[in-house]
Amino acid sequence: MPKSTSRAARIAIVVIGTTVSVSQLNAQEVPLEPLNAQPEANTSDGRTLQLEVFINDAPMKMIGTFKELPEGGLAAAPDELEQVGIKPTTDATGDAGLVHLDKLAGVSYRIDESAQRIYVTTSDDGRSARVVDAGVKESEPLQPQSGYGGVLNYTLFASTNTLFDDDVDVFQGVSGAFDARVFSPYGTVNQSFITGYSDGEIDDFTRLNTTWSYSDPKRLMTYRAGDFISGGLSWTRPVYLGGIQAQRNFALRSDLVTLPLPSFEGTAAVPSTLEVYTQNVRTYTSDVPAGPFQVTNLPAFSGGGEARVVLRDSLGRETTATLPFYSSSMLLRQGLLDFSAEVGLPRRNFGIESNDYDERIMGVATARYGVADWLTLEGHFEGGDELLNGGVGAAFPLGSYGAASLAVAGSHNGGRTGTLFNASIELDYGGWTIYGRMQRAFGDYDDIASVTADPVVISSDQFSVFSTGVPRSLDQLTVSVPMPLDFSSLNLSYTSLETADGENSRIVGLSYSQTMFKQSTFYASAFTDLEDSDSFGLFAGLSIPFGNDITATTGLEQGPDGVNVVADIAKSETQENGSIGWRARTSEGDVANRSAAISYRAPFARFEAGVQQFESDVRATAQMDGAIAVAGGGVFATNRIDDAFAVVDVGTADVEVQQQNRPVGKTNRSGRIIVPNLNSYEPNTVSIDPKNLPVDADVPATREVVVPADRSGVVVKFGVSETPQSALVTVADKNGVPLQAGLSGKLEGSGEEFVVGYDGQAYIRGLAAQNAIVVDLGEGKTCRAEFPYKAEPGKQVAVNGLQCL
């Protein structure tokens, strides 16, 4: 139990699930009135009273509605009492559903009718907790945008045969992977495929995905038709289907937190300031009144951590408690429902065959529901033809130390039946992090994958090298161990697997890392299969950063080819246009393996070239990645666009554009540029640097926030005009004194509004050869002035000495 940092207070902590209770007992307590004191006002006329509430002489800063009873006394609705800080009880509730204050145990009150106040005296047990929401206040989400357009992503890879063999052609061929999509406000149609060129002709096309998808952010739903992966849970096996799908998608709201967040409750004897620190960072501060309180939605992250709660009274005395908590992705917040439902034909040999579907229609339904913050229920059903498979599960916290889940499922396929049991646990205590999982299949347990997938075989030996059946047993354990040295970590892993065909493997792994001088890192890892004495691997080395994104690595590795000495030096390529990356690596041992590569990121594509020597075989490779985008009335060559993008229309050339304050390039001759790395359904900030704009340019805004829809493109127009017909006009009154800053005016004939700034200066747009302005002087007074205007390209036109009469 943590000790208080104040001698005048004590703290008791109780941890139940994700809720932490904190009780504060302060030596300075407010004297209580005698119990069951009678009201001082006349209570025989059945009036409804609106009274300001004081509890133990402290104002609640709230007005409650109370009903005078015919027999005397006061009553109020239960929720009304809770809101003003009084705990209602069922034994004090009358026939009309109102709570009689006189029947509340330990509660007394008096009414000051002239001041319209009620003074209630009670103990902490008779008070309802003031709820303090420490979560981020959700603002009105921006409406996702989507225009009309298309994107074609491509990857082209070319390789040579051995460079020093005169008996073979040097050129081996080109392979390509393509991902095309067309987007609109009605959804996105995606088509991906692979093909190649070799022996003088184009290879066959292999179709990958053909999918239409549409997302509804208001309902948090995504709908798909075509090829997709079915929904699933940690104890199920999702499959590729060709059909239709409806799925809950929490990712459509970037501000939505789905994990149960820690909460705690306590009592303040006097009005205090509450501060909450999560991982030594202050995440919340607020004033709390005297009495019990409850803090909900404490900002946290997945995994274990600690929150430090500080109560500070008006004299500056502090009471501190350290509260452990644990948040897990196994759990859903109370009331949240996550689900997926789909029906279609199981797809086989994806990436090998274009249209290999099983003829049997299968359906899948998966759901998770947060019954409470301490309990999440799971359910899964799949089947079709002769297959029926269903199961249920539950996930729950283990206090503030971790979480666990249990699941059981059964299947029936023709005359075959079977069951499956799955249990998992994750713990975090004292720096130890543990994850464990155990799964067992009994009888003839089947799912969609086991009854529809084709086993992978080697034709020469005719034996299966990949079992499609559900594993008979699966055990996993990973442990992260705290080390006595700073900046070091030790991780152990164990996996035991018995396939449906009876093949066994037990793999043990160990890794260690230690940060050393100048951010250098020593690391070592080893693994072995306990079922195969010849299976063993070891790698140990030292990584040294040199700055400018350059890192060197050296070490030893042992594998199937024996012991090798490895040296590697590389410069990382960044996302900025014009970035160059390179790498040189050598592995010296029984078999020499040397390679070198260089990459360059241009505004329109990314290029990489390399050469590799393996023993006496030397080959060269080349790769090009990029995209062609059609949107906003233009066609753009750019780097890959895996998510959303924006076409930024500034209106003038050579203006720097930034995304999230990171430069992405300058506008072309038409004043536009494509920004390829936006995140769907999240606010993305796009801005321009106006320093390269002409001095007479009109810039309505330099920053825009956009929320693109799913993998779509949006057009961001900044509306910069190089000929805005504007001038900087200095306006004075009839005595030559500059008009007061803040006055507003209008340009006659156009209705263009402007505001007078300091020294009587106003920026006025929409000017003609002759102009007249009217300025509102306040108190119903106005003044008027006329002036001529002549544009001067490349210069800011100024009109001085204008008198407003």
UniProtKB/TrEMBL annotation:
GO terms for cellular component: cell outer membrane. GO terms for biological process: pilus assembly. This is Fimbrial assembly protein. Signal peptide: none annotated. Residues 728-788 form the PapC-like C-terminal domain. It comes from Phyllobacterium brassicacearum. GO terms for molecular function: fimbrial usher porin activity.
